[in-house]
Every structure is written in C-alpha cells, then in structure tokens.
4-hydroxy-3-methylbut-2-enyl diphosphate reductase (Halanaerobium kushneri), 746 residues
Amino acid sequence: MLVLCWKEVKVLEVITAEEAGFCFGVERAIDMVLKAAGENEDLNVYTLGPLIHNPQVVKKLEEKNVKVASSLAEIDSGIVIIRSHGVAPEIIEKAREKNLKIIDATCPYVKNAQKYASQLVDEGYQTFIYGDEDHPEVQGIYGASEKKAIIIREKQDLNSVELKARVGFVAQTTKSPESFRDIINLVITEVKELKVFNTICNTTDVRQSSARKLAEDVDIMFVIGGHNSANTTRLAEICAATNTPTYHIETAAEIKKEWLSGKNKVGITAGASTPDWLIREVVQLMNEENKDVNVESNENVEEKEEQVVEEVEETVEVTEETTEEKEADQTEEAEESVETEAEEEVETQEEAEFKYSDNDIADLRKGQKVTGTVVEINDNGVYVDVNYKTDGFIPLRHLSHRPVEDAHDIVSMDEEIEVVILTLEDDEGNMILSKKQADYEKAWEKIEEAYENDEIIEAEVTKEVKGGLVVDVGVRGFIPASHVAIGYVDELSDYVGETLRLKVIEVERDNNNVVLSAKKVLEKERAAKKEETLANLEEGQTVEGTVTKLVDFGAFIDLGGIEGLLHISEMSWGRIESPSEVLSEGEEVEVKVLGVNKEEERISLGLKQLLPDPWEEFAEKHYEGEVVEGKITKLVDFGAFMEVEKGIEGLIHISQLSHKHVKTADEVVNVGDVREAKIINIDAEQERVGLSLKELEEKPEPKKESSSSKSSSSSSKSQSKKEEDSSSSGGATIREIVGDIFDQGE
Ligand code: F3S
C-alpha cells in the first residue's frame, strides 16, 4: 500500500529526440578548433565567421583564445580555421597569399557539394545550386563553380531562367529532400540531359523527422539552439506544426516553471550546433522537477511508515497479549517488512563492505555486503553459507538483474560470491540475501571508475528502444542512436546481442542514469590509427584497404583510419562507365599510393598501376601490318576509335577509312560495328595504335589521265608510289601521318 502510494505520484517523463545536438560536421569542426588552439598556444587562432550559430559555444571558444574574424582583412598572422560551411576557393587562395596557416574544417558533405558544382561547370552543364544565396555554405559552393552556377531559392525561381539542353543540380546540404525532388521533377521533362548530385545531408532529414515524431508523442517540446540558428528555428517550426506547445530556447535558464504545469511528457530536441552540455542542462532541470516531486512523495512514505509502526506498538500495548520480548520482535518485524518493501522498490543500500569471520557473526546486520559460499542450488534459488547460524537464501529474483530461469546459469556449487543481506530472519527464520544488489553496487563502482578514468568497458546490447539501444552494464545503460557508431546507423536492431566497447559519457547514480558511447571509442581508435597510417604512408607504396563508398567519379578506400580516393581513371587500363564495374563496397583491395598530402590529409590511389600494362603486352603480341578485329567505340570529327583488345583503342583516321573521299566517319562505320582493320602503327610509349580500313579495300583503278595532266601527274605518281611502299611496310611516312592524326585528335 505504501509503495503504491509512492508510485502513484506523477513524474515528468523526459524524452530526448533520436538525433539532437551536434552533427558530425560540427563536432568535427569543434574538435579541429580545440586541437589547433591546444597545440598552438603561441599563435593567434581565428575562425572565419563564428564557428557555429551558438553564442554559448562561441563564448567558450573565446575563453580558449579562439577569436572570431569576420573577414581575412582582420587577420595578420596565425591560424585561420575554415568553418564547416566552407568558403569559396578564392578565400583559401587569399589566406595562402597572406601566409596564414589554414585549417580547413569544411564538412566533407559540403566539400562534396563544392566539388560537384565545379565538376558540372567543367563538364559544360548549366549548373544550378538549390539553396539560400545569403547562406555562407551556398556562397562557398557558388565560388567553387567559378561563380557560373545559378542559385535558386525555390522552384518558382526557375520561371525566370531559360533552361539549356544539359542541366546539372546540387543542393545546399540542409535543404529539404522533398522540395529538391519537386524541383528535379519539374526540370526533368524540360531538358535533354539532367545530372543531379543529391548533396543534401541525411543528418538534417533524420533530425527533422525524429523531432516531428517526438513532438507528436509528448505534451510539450523544447527545441534547444541559438536563436540565430536557421536549422534550430526550422526544427521549432516543424515541432510547432504538430500543435504540441513548442519553445525554442537557447539555455535551460529560459524555461518557465508554469510551462510544465499539467504536462507529463516532455520532448527535447536540439539543432546541429547545440552542444551536449546545453541539452544536459535542460534534462537536468527536468530531473530536478522530478526530484522535487519525489522528495514530497518520500516524505509521505516515511510519515506513513511511522504511523504503521506506532499503530503496531499501540496494538501491542492495548492487548498485552505478549511478553516484552515478543513485543519487541513484532515491532521489529513490522518495521522490517515496511522497510524491506520500500527498500526493494527504491533499491538503496548501505554501502559498507563487510568481510566476515567467525567472531563477526553477531555483528551481521541488514544491508551489509558479505562474501559467502554457494552450498545448494534448487529451482527456487540458492543457499549460501555466510557463516551465520543458518545458511542465507537468495530467491531467483534476487540472483540477477536479468530474468533467471535456472540458477545454475548464474552460480555454481562452492563458488564464492558477494551478497547483500536483505533480511536477517524472515517469518520462517530464513536469512534473505541478494546477489543482484551486490552486483548492482559493484556495477556502479565500475561505471563511475570507468567514467572518471576515461576507460573503455564492454557490454552486451539487450534491446532497441526509441532513440537508441539498451546495454547491460550490470545496470541498465543507454546508448543514444547518434553514439552507436561513427555516422548514421540505419538498423539499430542489428546491434542487439552484440558486445560493444563503450565509453561512459554520463553517470547519474541518483537518477539511475548511465549514458554510453561506442562512437567515442571508435573515433579515438580511428584518430590514433589515422595518425599512424598517415605517418607511414609514402608515395609509390602498395597498401591494402577496404572500399567504403563508391561514387560516380571513383571510390573511397579506407586505409586504416583515413580514406584515400581512387579516381575512376586510375581503376582500369580500359574504359569503364562506372566504378561498380571494378569494385564493390566492403571489398578488400590492394592499391598503389600515387600521392600523399599529409597536411591536407589527401591521398590519391591507383589500382591499374598494379595490373599488367595492356599497351606493353599489345606491343609485344602485335605488329604493324597485322590485320586485327575490333569494335568501333566512338566516332569523332577526324575518324573513329576501335577497341582492338580490352583497354586498347586504336584510331582509324578519317583518311584511313576508305579509298573514297569520306566527309564524316559515319559514312563508313557506326559505333558498335565489329570490323577488321590493319595495324599501321604501334607506339606503346605514347599509348597509340593507328589502324586502317582503307588498306584492306581493293585499290580503285586509277582514272585515265588526260594529256594535259600527264606531265604534272608524273611527279605525284612517284610520291604515291612512295607512300604505298611505306604504307605496306609500316614505314616512316605512315608513322608521320599517324603522328599527325593523333596530334589532331588530341
Ligand atoms: Fe555537415 Fe550535415 Fe552537419 S552537412 S555540417 S554533417 S548538417
């Protein structure tokens, strides 16, 4: 009854959104700034613009001597940090000219958007950037497009643009995927060729949809983040649209108590530039609210306990049925029963550790932790000899914090275990013990120690819950979804049953709250590995790596904490349309290091360099004058290319297509045709093969000469005889011609 009364008190349920606070790009930028400030105490460190839209974080960075400069003109020397929004290449250039040390913390996703915009412009596409032209990120992407791209804020902006045949699109990373899709759907029917790079960052999408879902489920929403942060304002709008009362706050201090009146469920989310400690402050405040309520309810329990004890004592006095000794026992039993119920519910115990000896028996008391030996295991529990007058008994439910079906799964005969004494003697004279309680205390000690010493602990994932995973660290631990791995995890349930290596990032023993992170362990290991890999990496080495991502222009290969780029042109000697023809994600691969820029942490890799050079093989196997079969792969103004072997394409110059006069190559051949051709030149060094169809045709009869042209033709006759001879022998004249052909071709 007393316990029910305690439970009936309504407490605030506080739920934090699955994706809240720093995104990967912002966290990375902050780490880079702190590292730069820590390692360069003697230099001025500036961020070009506030690092993030959060005044509290900017202030904290200022305390660490990181200043904000609004332009390069304000910086004379030292380090300039490019924030995650990125900047136009010309700014980097100017910083170089000023001899500043540049630390580029541009988010890799933003870097991609810049790269794709530049690629589209280079390839001659009419290039569009979908984004807000005033946003620094968009200005950086625009700069990367050499200011040739057209920025559109919404689809209506397209009405004033005349679309060309070949159109390309990139988007600001924080734009909504739906509206980008709308724009693409509009353009797709209007143009001949459309190339779209979806550069929208998944984090934003996940953050917004998890905020919306949470807002639909709670009574009140707090959206934490700078009032000047566009992404936090957007989050607040999304939550408010669900009709749940929503407050956009910068810090916990802005919360008014009356907002919480009548509310049971509180939802919390935060923008990408909101640090964890600001979120924690709000959660803490909610817990304080709960504590206030709990203190009240605990006081009620104590009052009622006293009442019951008094009632028992009164009854004893009035009836005078028992001796003084009995009265004392009954009172003690009544007290014990009340205390045990409350104690089991709240699970608080005295922490004093007690190691017994024969002489200590008389000192055993409830709440002590003692060591004993397992002497019997049965279906109901376990008997333990703690050197008391009777063996103590651990009921199944007190063996472990997990459900137990068979006590043998937890203990074995003669094993020494630690237990806490719950009751010295129950109604039947049994001593009741709890191994669960002893383990629970041990677990907390281990967690607190790991937290203080920044140690790694291992724990099994027991289930997936909203917003993360539950792990068994002797008590219930929680891993927020954003801390399960580096990057976004699609299927959290895949981790259930796995043992993870974790860092404790938050401990509140009073609130039974342990928050852990696998990401922090992985990040630290990755950083150490990266440092080692970079230090040992040299141009020309052959190294092993794993394909992490395939993109249109190549593949990213993890070399151990750091990724290198294998460009599509370095994958194969032959022509390939897509990197997936050669590699697949997750594949282990050997690659050659073509270039290493340790400062900018850029590594370029090659795969074809480890494969036999088909040109050398071709030159060994084939000879000038040989007739080979091949497939026409491409027609150009000056002839046609023919693939004669995998990776080897030769040129049939337009003059070698036929004896007849040929204006365009398609008069003689088409792409896909399989034809025989004569090799008239091989130059393996220059990777060139000259081919001729003409030489396989019968030579037409020479036209009858008119008397007037006789004399002039005699000299050309000797010339053509010379060429004919050279042609059949693959001699110098043909080589020169082919040389010219290639020069023209290029
Ligand atoms: Fe980068 Fe996405 Fe954050 S683009 S800065 S990870 S929101």
Notes: Residues 615-698+718-745 form a domain with the OB fold (Dihydrolipoamide Acetyltransferase, E2P) fold (CATH 2.40.50.140). DSSP finds 16 helices and 32 strands in the chain. The first strand starts at residue 13 and ends at 16. The pocket of FE3-S4 cluster is lined by residues 23-26, 84, 107, 109-110, 173-174, 201, 203-204, 272 (CB under 6 Å).
